[in-house]
Amino acid sequence: MTRAIDSLDKLLAPVDPAKPQGAVWLVGAGPGDVELLTVKALRLLQRAEVVVYDRLVSEAVMAEVPESALCIDVGKQPGQHGLKQAQINKLLVDLARSGRNVIRLKGGDPFIFGRGGEEMVSLQAAGIRCEVVPGITAAVGCAAASGIPLTHRDCAQSLRLITGHGRRGEPQLDAAALSAVNQTLVFYMGLSWSASISAQLQAQGRDPETPVAIIEKGTRPDQRVLITTLGGLAETVARDQPVSPSLLVVGEVVRFYRADLQVRSGKPVSRCAVQERSA
Ligand code: SAH
């Protein structure tokens, strides 16, 4: 279910100085499975008046929003542009100024690669009350749904969340930080740059046999997990063509991957080279 409003102007009542200003809640929608919403997020959604959401929010989560609510899709498809960030910031301010209480619903957690910080600062600058409700970020949700522990005393003492998409496209990875051993790396937005990520990590001395999981549509009914290695990453992406949203998990913890957790997907895992080797 996607509900979009054509004319945003229709929503924006003229500012009435006698009417109290609305507030904005920056709410994390989690990675997709509706049961991973926080109780607070669910309560807010179920009595929402206006919901401003983007493409990462799953249909299952949107189904919790009452029919009476106005739902505004400001989503971006990869490679295309929805509303620009400045327009979204302005929309939130205008809605609150016209007396509306607004749920700004974002996939995962609003403060992890979600530009929630920018929206919060803009609201604060406009003097609008802004509250933040955290959500389960994709790394945490995808890890749980595939049995991959992000840290493990034996092989991963730290975890790094990285954007796989630089400001101008190709990421320039922080070489020294990424070459650390016993560290799990999780790349958000990394799918289209996976060949570059793989090459940069290997150039920093990461073993090409390091296991990698590509988790596509994590926690959703059609979740798919592709297991490969750093050296084989580009080939796996070219062959199996995972689509957005997908997360890359790099590190020894990927060996713990459990195919049996894929009960909800009904889809087979396409390759499991790492498990075969370690068996
Ligand atoms: N704020 C979000 C991340 C936004 S960046 C969060 O905390 O999760 C968008 C990226 O998140 C996607 O390109 C993808 O890499 C990742 N992502 C979000 N949801 C996902 C899901 N269900 N499965 C796999 N990756 C996901």
Characterise this structure.
The chain has helices spanning 39-46, 59-62, 85-97, 116-125, 138-146, 175-178, 194-203, 233-240, 273-278; strands at 24-28, 50-53, 70-73, 102-106, 130-133, 158-163, 183-188, 211-216, 224-229, 246-250. By secondary structure, it is of the alpha/beta class. Strand 2, helix 2 and strand 3 (70-73) form a beta-alpha-beta unit. Helix 3 (85-97) crosses helix 4. The longest helix is centred in the N-terminal third of the chain and has 13 residues, at 85-97. The radius of gyration is 20 Å and the shape is elongated. Mean pLDDT is 87; it is low at 1-7 and 263-279. The structure holds S-adenosyl-L-homocysteine. S-adenosyl-L-homocysteine (SAH) binds at residues 31-32, 56, 106-109, 112-114, 137-138, 142, 188-189, 215, 217-220, 244-247.
Short description:
The protein is an alpha/beta fold. It has 9 helices and 10 strands. The strands form 2 sheets. The protein has a 5-stranded parallel sheet with strand order 3-2-4-1-5, with helices on both faces. A 5-stranded mixed sheet has the order 6-7-10-8-9, with helices on both faces.
Strand order of the largest sheet: 3-2-4-1-5
One letter per element, helices H and strands E, the order comes to EHEHEHEHEHEHEHEEHEH
Whole-number mean pLDDT: 87
Given helix and strand content, the structural type is alpha/beta
Hetero ligands = S-adenosyl-L-homocysteine
> What portion of residues is helical?
25-40%
